[in-house]
Amino acid sequence: MRILNCGQYQLDLSKTHVMGILNVTPDSFSDGGNLYSGEGLLLDKVLHRAEKMLADGATILDIGGESTRPGAVAVSLQEEMDRVLPVVERIAAELEVVISVDTSSPEVMTQSAALGAGLINDVRALGREGALKAAAATQLPVCLMHMQGSPATMQDRPVYEDVLDDVEDFLLQRISDCEKAGITKERLILDPGFGFGKTVEHNLRLLNNLQRLKKQGLPLLIGTSRKSMIGAVLGREVDQRLPGSLATVAVAVMQGAEIIRVHDVAETVDVVKMTRAVMAESQEV
Ligand code: YH5
Question: How far is the CA of 3 from the centre of ligand 1 (A)?
């Protein structure tokens, strides 16, 4: 049985896991309802939203304090710590769920792990100074995501020789860098990084060819929820992208993605169940 050891919790990789997005950035306009008052982050509201996601069937919650949307400006380390750490601490104390921290900062990795986080999700694939070492020491699993460029400019004019080859080559290099730093393959998750330095065509090609990444034998995480590739195909604003997002989930589950990162947990859980039921048919006698 394939198992991912996330600190005190284990994830059974024969199942498809839904990871609920819990943004703790003041500018997360698309997430509905603000988690901030004039006084700052409202921890009770965050906890309430986390509980709802669990009740809806999420098995992982992804807590992020840095906006990595296209064009987003950098956040200071202190600001990121002030946003993320109290949330990790409170959820770890009150809920039974794997906590993922969406961070590129070594300090946030180290401190989140000490407070009970179970997974490191880094859109920069441990590329920051000190991140490989910090992540290695936590003993936690790490999601390595592909990005071309940086959030400030990545959508300006992304170009690839071949997006499938380039993403695969990058991730293979990072796997090797992780192994050298003492992070074994059993701890790694791969993610093609939808929307991170990619045109709509690049994103669609990646989604239609997830089997290529599956070949590495590592679990896959995909995050397409409400992203602009859906807006571009359907001509929908961000609050009208749920059906499009769900279609991408079915496509990813069919190709064996193990972790699906989404805003809309309840709807995604239904699509995952339905897709898995169809897939199970071929295994029956
Ligand atoms: C991801 O794909 N994405 S943050 C723009 C949007 C909607 C959503 C409205 N962290 C990923 O969710 N971590 C983010 O347009 C991630 N994989 C992993 N592993 C960006 C985001 C978003 C951006």
Answer: 25
